[in-house]
Design a protein that fits this description.
about 375 residues, alpha+beta, Butyryl-CoA Dehydrogenase, subunit A, domain 2, Butyryl-CoA Dehydrogenase, subunit A, domain 3, 8-stranded mixed sheet, 13 helices, 8 strands, flavin adenine dinucleotide binding
């Protein structure tokens, strides 16, 4: 049984109602802006899949999380992107819980108990800027903080229940410092604006989340020292890359499965693409097996795997679509959608060319500078 087949089996065993829904619902409906896939994921128990059992969740490990993303990605790319945002947020919260003040643990228990979906507005790596800098500002006021800023795109924009955000705190006295805020979507001052204009991934709800003078009590903001903050960000990036790779690997695995069903992928061509995809899956398995303590080495390894996957998945997509043929491509919107979606893999941070210089330094024996 291939890794992809095992992934589908895991989905059926872990979330059987979701698996049935994805099987019975057309691809066009799953990917439309009106799709109910995210709601179904939540309503069928998807939210706590990655939450550890001690917090009341299902406790999937990293490799199981990869397999779950692969299976979801094959059925609905939009759902995979949205679920990936949630799973990355859960993983980051759990990393923070190791050194936090207890708020993270309480949030994780609440997520499991109430099936809450979590989106995130953590800072993203940019060339020349520290990952510990955030464009979201929290100004200290009596009894709490007033938060303002924009996160775009932000998947799960409409269906999220909670937003975790890295913020730059401006205290009444003293120097600004880094912190993490837990914000309920119901808070006054949160709005969602249209941002995503591309014709694909419409169902991922990747819009702009605007925070305008959102009040957050002191109990919902966690001060993080620089060392712990950096480690949490490194762990978060590792999880983000792992989950994102799994999502796109699932999408291409689904494409290959469709081509096989049509009888357009046979013999040596079929074997070759399966060998390529299986090797990709095993590289993710290697990373997933080393997730207990993420280090700069883990980050360099997952980035290396991610950039290699970009090339392999683009190659497999192109070769498979050429065998599917023009008539199938024209008459079935699925193939054109997948062709566009796979290209979007290149745009997830950090971009390959932006990281070449830091990776070169790392391969020369220096520390990896996560920008």
């Amino acid at each position: 049984m291939s890794t992809f087949q095992k992934a589908q089996h895991l989905l059926r065993g872990t979330l059987p109602e979701l698996a049935q829904y994805l099987k019975e619902t057309s691809f066009d409906e799953l990917e439309s802006e009106q799709s109910q896939a995210i709601t179904i994921f939540r309503d069928t128990g998807g939210a706590p899949t990655l939450v550890k059992q001690k917090y009341g969740g299902k406790g999937l490990n990293a490799w199981q999380a990869v397999q779950l993303q692969m299976a979801i990605g094959a059925a609905s790319p939009s759902l995979a992107i949205a679920v990936g945002m949630h799973q990355f947020s859960i993983a980051t919260l759990q990393e923070m819980a190791k050194v936090g003040n207890g708020l993270e643990s309480l949030m994780l228990e609440g997520i499991s108990r109430s099936n809450l979906l979590v989106s995130s507005a953590f800072s993203e790596g940019q060339i020349g800027k520290s990952i510990l800098k955030s464009s979201i500002i929290a100004k200290e006021v009596d009894k709490g903080y007033v938060i303002s800023g924009v996160k775009k795109p932000c998947s799960l924009a409409h269906c999220m229940d909670l937003l975790t955000a890295s913020v730059q705190v401006e205290p009444k006295d003293g120097e600004p410092y880094f912190a993490v805020a837990m914000i309920h979507k119901a808070c006054e001052g949160i709005t969602v604006e249209k941002f995503w204009q591309a014709p694909f991934l419409q169902a991922s709800q990747s819009e702009a989340v605007v925070l305008e003078n959102v009040f957050v009590p002191k109990s919902m903001l966690v001060n993080v020292d620089e060392k712990s903050a950096y480690q949490s960000h490194v762990a978060g990036f590792v999880w983000f890359e792992l989950i994102t790779c799994a999502s796109y690997l699932g999408m291409v695995s689904g494409l290959v499965a469709q081509a096989c069903e049509l009888g357009r992928l046979q013999g040596a061509d079929k074997a070759q693409v399966h060998v390529q995809l299986e090797a990709c899956a095993l590289s993710l398995k290697a990373i997933a097996g080393d997730m207990e303590s993420q280090t700069q080495d883990t980050l360099a390894q997952v980035l290396s795997v991610r950039y290699h996957l970009q090339e392999v998945l683009a190659e497999v997509t192109q070769s498979t679509l050429s065998l599917v043929g023009g008539i199938n491509y024209i008459n079935n919107g699925y193939f054109a959608t997948i062709a566009q979606v796979i290209h979007a893999f290149n745009f997830h941070p950090p971009a390959k060319h932006a990281m070449y210089a830091p990776l070169n330094n790392y391969f020369d024996g220096q520390e990896l500078e996560m920008v």
